[in-house]
Amino acid sequence: MAQVNSDALVFYGATGDLAFKKIFPALFQMIKRGHLNVPIIGVARGDFNLEKLQGRAKESIQRHANFDDETFEKFLALLAFVGGDYTDPQTFLRVREALGAAKHPTHYLAIPPILFPSIIAQLEQSGCAKGARVIVEKPFGTDYSSALNLNKLLLSKFSESSVYRIDHYLGKRPVNNLVFFRFVNSLLEPVWNKKHIESMQITMAEDFGIQSRGAFYDVTGTIRDVIQNHLFQILCNLTMEPPQTLDSESIRDEKVKVLKSISPLRAQDVVRGQYQGYLQEKAVSKDSKTETFAAMRLHINSPRWDGVPFFIRAGKQLPVTCTEILVRFKHLPSAYSSIASKPNHIRFRISPDVTVAFGMLIMAPEEDMASVLSEVQGNPTPFPKEKDAYERVLTDAMAGDPTHFARQDYVEEAWKLVDDYLHADSPVFDYIPGTWGPEEVNELICPPGGWNNPTLQKK
Ligand code: BG6
């Protein structure tokens, strides 16, 4: 059911953390922009009612969005509530009733995947699945086989074109800009290959710990939480071949091809770390071996990338919160080689600010036969009313555009790459909070020329 506007949104998990931090603010912004004007039905278990939900929505929007009374009035006029257990058929009959005349509702499962089987069965039995699409939150499974099962379950009741698997990194403009930037600038394509690129590295650093998410994080870890999804998406955007056309399937086909040409992770290509103090976090097992940091080296076996190493690093309790990519270029042999002090680079900062910077060599001051690296920065000023990633993906899902969602084959291929490694026993090294991970990283997984440690300008 592609490209049909949905005429109602039902979201399950309406009293949860995600709804509070992300979904209410995103829906509010969509209404403000005139992108959402259909019934919104919040569903939750436990002792809740419409009035309480309205109160919670207000608090959430005041805290996380640009609240105004006029838009909030519109929001309240659209908001309904259905309470009940997700295994109880009555709950879904009430949802069906609340949907009224809607023919193409979107069901957004903002709930733990363990509840999916009963919800999906109930959606069908109650008639709520008819003409509908479904949005599912990450994590999409915990490994290859669980993702297969989840896909099987979803696709037994919905067609692939009606399933929208969220990876909110695909709702970030600077992440999508990577593909755009590569293919609209004719300067880049001739050098975007193994002949000219020495290595690429992607760093996603966070200067905070697991916050209050111990129960989730301890069974998840960095690789499952952000690498298998967010950072692999970035890698695909940096390395995919140009799609034949700009339709969603051609773009998603190219991403899957990248994943299929990566060799699965081997133990020697990964270093895992855990910050000191993690074991004392709430809801974390006292002898946990879960990683809060991981660095890895990957190879893409394709004519374009054969032999170029790709490095990915992510972690909690690192010195800064920043996601950044560094593409390093090779030196070309010439009479000037000996004075080329550093490789050229392109640096893409995804967050907290957005930067595209070219690192180029220029003549050193007062010295003709020496070079210094200087960055030429294009700073794409964020569009003043830039959408939040959740707002963008929910807007797309409601409009039936699947481009920025993970397709079935994509999630399965992404799990395949990390599956063997995740099921094997591997060491986890500790590191001091506020550092760039365990010392072992620099010995074992180090890009040529070293890691690029992002720094933030003091405000
Ligand atoms: C989430 C992870 O998917 O992404 C979190 O579960 C992580 O652990 C978050 O902090 C980072 O998202 P963003 O948009 O703040 O970079």
List the topology elements.
Blueprint: E1 8-12, H1 17-32, E2 40-44, H2 50-64, H3 69-78, E3 79-83, H4 89-99, E4 105-109, H5 116-126, E5 133-136, H6 144-157, E6 163-165, H7 173-184, E7 197-205, H8 214-218, H9 221-239, H10 248-260, E8 270-275, E9 293-299, E10 309-315, E11 322-329, E12 345-351, E13 355-363, E14 371-378, H11 389-399, H12 408-423, E15 428-431, H13 440-444
Parallel strand pairs: 1-2, 1-4, 2-3, 4-5, 5-6, 7-10, 8-15
Antiparallel strand pairs: 7-11, 8-9, 9-10, 11-12, 12-13, 13-14
Helix pairs in contact: 1-2, 1-3, 1-11, 4-5, 5-6, 6-12, 7-9, 9-10, 9-12, 10-12
6-O-phosphono-beta-D-glucopyranose is lined by residues 206, 225-226, 351.
